[in-house]
Structure formats: structure tokens, C-alpha cells
Molybdopterin oxidoreductase family protein
Amino acid sequence: MPAQFLPTACPHDCPSTCALEVERVAPDRIGKVRGAADNSYTAGVICAKVSRYAERVHSPDRLKTPLLRDGPKGSGQWKPIGWDEALDRIADKFLTAERTLGAESVWPLFYAGTMGLVQRGAIQRLRHAKGYARQISTVCDTPANMGWLAGYGDIRGADPREMAESDLIVNWGGNPVATQVNVMTHVSRARKTRGAKLVTIDPYRTGTAEVSDLHLMLRPGTDGALACAVMHVLFREGFADRAYLARLTAEPERFEAHLATRTPEWASRITGLTVAEIEDFAQLYGRTQRSYLRVGYGVSRSHNGAAQMHAVSCLPIVTGAWQHRGGGGLYCSSGIYSLDKTLSEGLDRVDTRIRAFDQSRTGAVLTGDPRDLKGGPPVTAMLIQNTNPAAICPDSLRVRQGFLREDLFVAVHEQFMTDTAQLADLVIPATTFLEHDDIYRGGGQMHIVIGRRVIEPQFEARENHWVISEIARRVGAEHPGFGMTALEIIDAMLKASELGDAASLSENRWIDAQPDFETSHFLNGFAFPDGKFRFAPDWAALGPYGGMPTMPDHMPPGREADAEHPFRLVTAPARQFLNTSFNETVTSQRREGRPTALIHPEDAAELTLAEGAPVRLGNTQGSVVVHAKPFAGVPRGVVIVEGIWPNTAFVEGIGINSLTSPEPIPPAGGAAFHDTAVWLRAA
């Protein structure tokens, strides 16, 4: 067959959700992958990871057939079995657990390995139809969501394409050069056409910081203090838009009085920045009407993450930047979509009386912590899709301990033999996004994009939706979605949402869902009954965990450095990986090299650590060994380990999340991946 480019969408857990064109060179084989040039956000630009997707989809390491454990747990001993036997075994284990301990002893676990609404949501439909234990998905965006919601009441913001019309883009807590390359497309346009400045605020010199006009390298977990000091200057110097504040915010006078003592001198002691750095940035921000605040997830991945997000989100409120094109800001656009997921996720069967387990506390759940089991039976049967908890969850040694329980049955539906799959009892091969139909919505942009199947499934891989429907039939779960194809569910979802149908979306490829300027910029009011932004949020309404500051402030991080643990560890994303996706491909591994600890040269000298020397990082949860790299682009007392690498890539086979805490971030939970205190010593 002649080669042709077919439209689809990137499924990975990245805010860009790029519209793609994929070259099909045979019914079961792809060639090049490129961005859709006529999509106004993707604009023809995609990351290197996805551009070489042929390496991933056609990898010889893809799982090829169902595998049954044929030795001790974690031994790596497997034997091939057929699909019917595999599905029968899963169903039998689920039914046995239900009969002996109740349906709540079955815990389907999933997350964001695909962001497709049908393939990702199918496991939810099975959960709700059968009354299995529910899941609180906290491991990524819960703290950030709560911090933004606290003030704005909804998760939306200025159209990210407006960055091209900005005079100042503030990249706070993100590294889009590595993690969302399309942001840089629109930044580049603003620089070329308007002479715009790019400021990056981050605890180390990332790829984005390297190309920025200004980099504020603050200590981890001190973003709230910096934000407050900047706003102190904005009020002091007359940059605050008092008319805007009076019209659209609650208690602005109280907020200004609160900031009176949050001076640059105060923040300098907390952040490690100089007073001049804080003053200069505040002056730049205050003088620029068209200032676009692009907030990343890094702000929120500390115990004080929600508080930090709320504090940072106040900046465009104080200056009234929301009133201008190219002004305001964005954290996430999830609130703009009206897609009805009732059918795809079985939301009409949800029973909120059924206990729910916190994903970030998977280790505690599987090892039977009474706080997490909530008076119920232990988890004895699991199906895992779209996630790799043995590597990505906090307190990973405890996660591993839980998976190794002899009374726990674990089935993993995966594309590769991940850390989690290695600990399973049964592994079944999954399709990639190129081998099934799905529908996607952007997180950092505004498009709903359909992704039709491009090639036939590789080997014996099966899509999530099909697997879930087959298990549902075997365990007696009933729901209309189980009898439909993925495309039929997409069609029904679009019609229920009054967004057309699957045929029209397939023809048009995407829907631009961005609201009008006034709605996007909250000019008609914020999403509260009185329409006013909240400087003093009702934190109790957002979650059960207390300890939040009344107004924006420096809330201490959860694990501050001390004499025994003098270093702060940040586990930032690597450029060639996406969480644990792509860390199985040869090119990504070669370009990243190996797990490395970035340490300030003076700290490395004190510890007598030369380039490439093995170094042990540890705390009360455990220790890991990586190789040191002296790096001046990190503050003293801070260590950066980019990842997430497979556990097996570490010197002793123990991954970096063995050191991160599972304690919930207030007010609603979450994982504090960048809030870890450790000691360092030569290994």
C-alpha cells in the first residue's frame, strides 16, 4: 500500500495533547510522526519523544502475548497463555475476592498512561458497575487544582495562544522546553514580533531557564514567599489596579494589609534570592500590562503545594492583567470542556458510600494501613491499567512490599514489562494509541481531538475498552457501554454533549473549545456566587486536610532540611521521558544516560564527589545510589535527580521514589515529589 499520513492525537500525560499526522507505511507499520501544521496550538511542532514514536510502537520489547507468572513473585519467570485463559483467571480472582471479602476488596487501579477518555475511562465503568473500591486520583494534579480553584473557582484561564500577543511570559514552576514544547512556539512568536521577555522561576537551571531572559533560582518550596513579596512591591509601587480589585475581588484592603510585612527582605531570607532580584522582577511584572503567567505543576509538588499555587495565581489579579489580551495566565484548561463522560466511565452507577483509596498512598493501602483501609477488608485482587505504581508512587519500597503479598492477585495490562508488571501474577499486552480509537481533550490548550486507529494492533495487543468489556461479561457487570465499540461510545459522548458526532469530528479532526475572551479572562466574574476572586479561600470546602494559611503566605514545606537531612531533593521530569513512558526506548535511554544527582560544585567538593562518582541519597524511608554531577545551576543544599527511571536503572535496583513521602498534601491530598529532605554521602 502507498504510504499516507493519517490524523490522530498524542495520548500522553502532557498538557499539549498535540494534533498529529502519522505516516502509515503498511497496515501494521508506521513511519514518520509530525505535528499538524494547521492546528493553531500544535502548529506543526511536537516533542522529539513522539516524533520518533515508530521506535516505541515497533519496539522488540513490546509485550506480545498474555503471560502467567511461573515462579516466585518478582522472579521474572513467565509462561505464555491464551487470551481466554488470561481473562478467565482475572474474572475468577475477582469473583473469589467478591465472594469471600466483598466487592470492596477488588481495587482496579489506573491513571494517565493514556489520556484518552474512552480507553482510560473504561476501567472506571467496571469499577462503578460492580461496586469495587473507588480511587482518589491524587498523584499528579490535585494540589495544583485545589490551589487554583481556591481563588478562581474554576480551572480555566487565558487562551494559551495569547502568549504570542504578550510582552512578558512568566514560566513559573514548569520546564516547557522538555515537558510542553508548544509553549515555546508561542513564546518564540511573542519574542520575534513584540520583543517579549521570558522569565523562568525554578529551583534549578532547566532547559527553559537556559533560554530565558531572566531566571530566578529560588529554594524549593518557597514560591509562596516570592509571590507575596512581589505583590508587596506591586502595592507599594502603585502597580496594583485598585479599580479592578474593588470590582472583582473579595477583601482587597485586608489582603494589602496582610502583605505589608511580606517584604523583599523577608522573602530573600526564605527563598535564597537577593532583594534586588525580587525587586527587579516585581518592577518588570508591574510595568507590563500584557503579562502572561504560565504556571507549571512543579509549584504544587510540595507539602505546601496548594498554598503556593494559590499565592502565585494572585499575581495577575493584583495588576489586573486579566483585562488585556496576552495578559492573565493559565494553569490548566480542564474546566472549559463539557464532554459528558457518563457512558464512558459509568458515572450513572457511582456509589459514594463505597470506600475510596488514595492513589498516592498505594503502599499504605496494599500493606494494610488501618487509616487507609477505613475499617474494611484488605485488597486481594487488582487490575492495573495506564499506570506504573511500583515506580511512580511515593514510598515505593512499601508499594513493592504490598505487591509481593502472596494473598494479593495482580493483573497488569501494559505495553512493556514495567516495574509494576514485573511484580504481577498475570500480564496482558496493551495497544498503543495508534492501534485503537479514542478521544482526547487538552490540558494546557483548548482542543478536543479525535484519534482514530492508524494501524492494526501489534502482536496480540488488545485495547483497554475491549479488555474491560470482556472482564465485565465474565464477572456479570452490566452497563450499556460494555456492549459498544470505542467509536460508538465516542459518538454517543459527543451527541450527549451537543458537540456533533464521531463522523463529523473525524472529518474536522478537532473542536476548538476555548471560551470567548471575557469568559476566559474572568471579566464577567469568577466562579463564586458573588463573582469575586478569593484572597482568603474556604480551604475546608476543598478538602479534609487542614493547616492552610488564611491568606497567601509562605507555608513551610513538609520536609525541611535539618542537621540530619541537610539537602532538599527535587525529582524533576527528564527531557527524554514522560513519567515512566519512553524510558523503555533505546534512544531515550541513550540520550538521558543514567540516573544522576545534580549537586552544586561546592557541595560536591565538600563531599569529595567527583564527576560520575557514586553517591548515596537517603532518609528514614531508605536510600538510593546514583552518580554525581557537579552543576552550578542548582542552589547549595539542593540535589536534583531527573527521571522517572525504571527502578532497575539505579545502581542497587531501588528507585528514587523510595525516598518521597506519601503523606497527603492539604487540603485534598497529593504527592509531595519535590519535598524530600535527604542526606548525601559517597557510596
Notes: Residues 179 and 507 are 29 Å apart (CA to CA). The first strand starts at residue 4 and ends at 9. The mean pLDDT is 97. The chain has three domains: 67-135+338-428+460-496, 158-330+525-541, 567-682.
